[in-house]
């Protein structure tokens, strides 16, 4: 099969490289010339484990190429995927579909012969209808179908998720398009990945329902964590106690500083807007979004409490900036709100992240970026662990303590044990665990 991928970001580049690895001939297109120049040189513009090797191998074998102009790729393609961004529209929280519609117009102008246009971007219900209308209006003579094929990969584990998905959702009523999609995904089908064929609107909504459900799960355990701190219970044990129930499942039950990233915040907002417009408001998701928003600044208050009620003039070391480990993606990362709130309260910030500092520099001001974790804690009055990179899980704690001005650690990911930290002489605060809460209370 010949595949054109319009948009070569976190989703487009991973999907394109994986399709090429299945044996298809893929062109990844992006309107950003710097991105395409880098890819053509062999540089990967994002951090995603394993992606550099996957891209290099498939380029070498002649199955993967890059372009800024989509004409050739689209003309020869059996399937054209749209994988452009759908950020929150400024002002109202609806998904901004301008990139998707522009891509649809660009594709329509050059497509040739029967073409399956596949929306991989996360788009609100009814977007497929509008893409179809745009293509029809631009090219009344065109022979095409518009399919919804939402993507469920996670940054940081994107290649494994794409190659071994829990399911593939394909939304179309067009029999020819269904056959093309079955061929595109045939290698996965052989690997027993379940393919769910649905109507287009159902596929579009399934993606939002999945993300809203996961965001709800995270927010639920975060509120349980708050309650644990009040009543002297341990959220990790509660999570295990409920997660072993198959009806609940153990994943996404890690209490922390609130969800961030390029998907959950914008997708919950977009679903809320869609539901309101449809006259069927989703009050649970509305509450989840509001609770999560509050939580990020509440984490800064937790740090301030651990520091005795004030951080004015103090130095706070922040380990981890990205919204989760194994990515360089800083979009909506909790670290942004936490650091800003600490700065608002007069703290100086030193920070270190293995991959996120370049993106962070354009989003945060007056932060001292450090070379490694030990450099970061030098002279600090408190250390906050915001992202659970593996590199932070086994720090030399005596060295950390020796370099800090005061041995205060606020662990927002619960990666250390309270008893061990106490034994080593730290004042240790974590999330939803009794020792952490007791330490924090003790200071207030
Ligand atoms: N990032 C994730 O983990 C993830 C997971 C599942 C779904 N999604 C969804 O996939 C979509 C893409 O997300 P992303 O994180 O890859 O975004 P991204 O911002 O990393 O990449 C989008 C790319 O599209 C390019 N682009 C925009 N308009 C274009 C056009 N007309 N022609 C060619 N290129 C164009 C941009 O230059 C950019 O490089 C979004 O809808 C997102 O919600 C993302």
Give me some keywords for this one:
444 residues, alpha/beta, six-stranded parallel sheet, 14 strands, 46% helix, binds nicotinamide-adenine-dinucleotide, NAD(P)-bd_dom_sf, EC 1.1.1.22
Description of the structure:
- This protein is an alpha/beta fold.
- 46% of the residues lie in helices and 14% in strands.
- The strands form three sheets. It has a six-stranded parallel sheet, with helices on both faces. Strands 11-10-9-12-13-14 form a six-stranded parallel sheet. Strands 7-8 form a two-stranded parallel ribbon.
- The longest helix has 32 residues.
- The protein is globular.
- The structure holds nicotinamide-adenine-dinucleotide (NAD).
- It catalyses: UDP-alpha-D-glucose + 2 NAD(+) + H2O = UDP-alpha-D-glucuronate + 2 NADH + 3 H(+).
- Pathway: Nucleotide-sugar biosynthesis; UDP-alpha-D-glucuronate biosynthesis; UDP-alpha-D-glucuronate from UDP-alpha-D-glucose: step 1/1.
- Keywords: NAD, Oxidoreductase.
